[in-house]
Each structure stands twice: as C-alpha cells, then as structure tokens.
C-alpha cells in the first residue's frame, strides 16, 4: 500500500475525531475551549481500556475505521 494513501486516511480519521471532540467543547471568553467533565471522564475510561473491554458500539466504531483501511489495501492489491 502506498504510504501517502494510508497517511491521508489516518489524517482524515484524526480530523473527523477532532471535529467531533471540539464540537463537544464549550467556548471560553478568551477563545479557548473547555471540555465538559462528562466527556473527559468517558474519554479517559475509553483510552485506558483494551479493545477487548470496549462496548460493542465502541468496537464497531473502530471496525468501521479498520474496514476503511482494509478497503484501501484491497483496492491497491486489485490494481496490480
């Protein structure tokens, strides 16, 4: 697989996550953003869990991203 194609998808995945995360924040007077405690708590728990301990919904979100990466690889292989 071409590293640039994969890197682009990794960036897009990160950008989508940032859009989501920042949409949950509250703007402060100085232009900064504050993450509400409920999201901080949830994300700390999630980041410290192994994949096996995620809920099925959380696993499916990760599977969607993995499928995208596999599709990129399969498309690359079929173009040979």
Structure, described:
- It is a single chain.
- 70% of the residues lie in helices and 5% in strands.
- The protein is mainly alpha-helical.
- The protein has one domain.
- Helix 1 (3-23) runs antiparallel to helix 3.
- The longest helix is centred in the C-terminal third of the chain and has 23 residues, at 56-78.
- It is flat.
- The model has no long low-confidence stretch (mean pLDDT 92).
TL;DR?
The protein has 80 residues and is mainly alpha-helical. Helix content is 70%, strand content 5%.
Mean pLDDT: 92
Determine the number of helices (DSSP H or I, runs of at least 4 residues).
3
Characterize the main sheet. Answer: 2 strands, antiparallel
How many strands in all?
A: 2
In the residues, how many domains can be counted?
1
Strand order, largest beta sheet: 1-2
Gap between N and C termini, in Å? 11 Å
Residues in helix, % = over 70%
Estimated radius of gyration: 16 Å
Task: List segments where confidence is low: pLDDT < 50 over at least 5 consecutive residues.
Answer: none
Q: What gross morphology would you assign?
A: flat
Strand content: 5-15%
Oligomeric status = single chain
Task: Provide the structure class.
Answer: mainly alpha
- Helix/strand order: HEEHH
